[in-house]
Amino acid sequence: MAPIPTPPAEPQDSPERYVGLEAGQAERLARERGWSTVRSLPPGAIITMEYRFGRLNFEVRDGRVARAWKG
Length: 71
Fold this sequence. Notes:
Number of strands: 3
Largest sheet: 3 strands, mixed
Strand content: 25-35%
Number of helices: 1
Strand order of the largest sheet: 1-2-3
Oligomer: single chain
Shape: globular
Mean pLDDT: 93
Distance between the termini: 28 Å
Protein backbone atom coordinates (compact mmCIF):
# COMPACT_ATOMS: atom_id res chain seq x y z
CA MET A 1 0.00 0.00 0.00
CA ALA A 2 1.24 3.50 -0.81
CA PRO A 3 2.08 5.82 2.08
CA ILE A 4 -0.35 8.59 2.95
CA PRO A 5 1.12 11.86 1.65
CA THR A 6 1.94 14.58 4.15
CA PRO A 7 0.16 17.82 3.24
CA PRO A 8 2.38 20.86 2.77
CA ALA A 9 2.60 23.38 5.60
CA GLU A 10 0.28 26.34 5.37
CA PRO A 11 1.68 29.87 5.45
CA GLN A 12 2.04 31.36 8.92
CA ASP A 13 -0.53 34.02 8.16
CA SER A 14 -3.78 35.11 9.77
CA PRO A 15 -6.87 35.33 7.52
CA GLU A 16 -8.19 38.23 9.59
CA ARG A 17 -5.37 40.41 8.21
CA TYR A 18 -7.16 40.53 4.84
CA VAL A 19 -10.56 41.75 6.04
CA GLY A 20 -11.22 45.27 4.77
CA LEU A 21 -8.66 45.14 1.95
CA GLU A 22 -9.59 45.65 -1.70
CA ALA A 23 -10.15 42.17 -3.20
CA GLY A 24 -7.42 42.33 -5.86
CA GLN A 25 -4.86 43.65 -3.39
CA ALA A 26 -5.79 40.94 -0.88
CA GLU A 27 -5.39 38.20 -3.52
CA ARG A 28 -1.94 39.44 -4.58
CA LEU A 29 -0.80 39.76 -0.98
CA ALA A 30 -2.05 36.26 -0.11
CA ARG A 31 -0.14 34.72 -3.03
CA GLU A 32 3.02 36.65 -2.05
CA ARG A 33 2.67 35.23 1.48
CA GLY A 34 2.61 31.67 0.17
CA TRP A 35 -1.05 30.68 -0.26
CA SER A 36 -1.18 28.26 -3.20
CA THR A 37 -4.88 28.85 -3.89
CA VAL A 38 -6.85 32.03 -3.26
CA ARG A 39 -10.59 31.93 -3.83
CA SER A 40 -12.80 35.05 -3.94
CA LEU A 41 -16.49 34.39 -3.45
CA PRO A 42 -19.63 36.54 -3.43
CA PRO A 43 -21.71 36.65 -0.24
CA GLY A 44 -23.84 33.53 0.17
CA ALA A 45 -22.00 31.54 -2.50
CA ILE A 46 -22.61 27.80 -2.42
CA ILE A 47 -19.25 26.07 -1.99
CA THR A 48 -17.95 22.62 -1.19
CA MET A 49 -16.89 22.06 2.39
CA GLU A 50 -13.73 19.98 1.88
CA TYR A 51 -10.66 21.39 3.56
CA ARG A 52 -7.76 22.18 1.21
CA PHE A 53 -4.35 22.87 2.69
CA GLY A 54 -2.89 26.07 1.31
CA ARG A 55 -6.23 27.56 0.24
CA LEU A 56 -7.44 30.93 1.47
CA ASN A 57 -11.06 31.93 0.89
CA PHE A 58 -12.37 35.49 0.70
CA GLU A 59 -15.97 36.59 0.86
CA VAL A 60 -15.99 39.75 -1.21
CA ARG A 61 -18.67 42.40 -0.75
CA ASP A 62 -18.58 45.68 -2.70
CA GLY A 63 -15.03 44.96 -3.88
CA ARG A 64 -13.60 44.45 -0.40
CA VAL A 65 -12.87 41.37 1.69
CA ALA A 66 -15.66 41.05 4.25
CA ARG A 67 -14.55 37.65 5.62
CA ALA A 68 -11.53 35.38 5.17
CA TRP A 69 -10.89 31.78 6.21
CA LYS A 70 -8.54 28.87 5.55
CA GLY A 71 -9.39 25.77 3.61
